[in-house]
Structures are given as C-alpha cells and as structure tokens.
Amino acid sequence: MDTIDRAILEILQTDARTTNAEIARRIGMAPSATLERIRKLEERGVIGGYTTVLRPETLGFGLLAFIFVRSDNGPDADSTEEALARIPEVQEVHHVAGEDCFLVKVRTESTTALGHLLRDTINTIPTIRATRTTIVLQTVKETSAIPLPAEAPADA
Asked: pLDDT tens-digit profile of 77-91?
C-alpha cells in the first residue's frame, strides 16, 4: 500500500459517499485509475464494505452499555459468542483475555430496557455464568476510522 492508497482510504473513511471523480481530483489521478485502485483495495479486503452511520440517540437508543460476560464453555466459546451476536441490541462481541470471556457493546432505549435485555435474554444463555455491566454516561469519542500509518522506510 502506497501513499496514494492511503490518501484514498483517508477520503473514504471520512465520507464513503465521496464520488470517484472527487477522489481522483483530490489525489491528482484520472478517475479510471482511481477506480481501479479502489477495486484493488476492495479485492484485497482492505475495504470491507460501505455503510451508513446512524445516530442511535435520534432513533431512541440513547443508552450505551458495555457488558463483561463470563461463560463456562472455555476455549470452545463458539456457542456463547454466536448466541450473543444474534441479539439485535448487541453491536459488538469481543472474545477477551482476562477474568471475563467476552466484552459486549449494547445499545438500548433505557435502563429498564437494559435490565430486560440482561435478565430475559443475555442471562438466559445457558453457558453464561456472570455479567458485569458498565453504563456510559458520556461518549467523548467514538469512531470506526483506522489510523493509517505513514509509509514504512524502504530500509525497514
């Protein structure tokens, strides 16, 4: 990946709706060459897709919480992680090292809804032994953007 690819990725991370012609203008390349680079980034899996970012609070999902989950199915955690991933309010499931097995990011309408989610859905998964929940009071930064490193020196 060179500096042109990085420039394309920076533009797309900021606004994935930027037209091919606009990207080409900003990086100083022909639109056809720019499109070919974007296609190659997609084929290599660098670009995994394009999405719309919704603002959860405007849709009534103003409560953000992180749930630490302990399960008893050890290294074969597939059944637990699959069950957690199927829950609509769950945005992220991370298998983690440490005391807990999973870190789960959820969004709900209220603390009441969060309580129902924990009691009626998450804690009914047979392999789950314990949960600890942290409610977010304020989000200072939330992004899906990846910091793109500067090009590595040729002798590295």
From this structure: 688 999 999 999 999
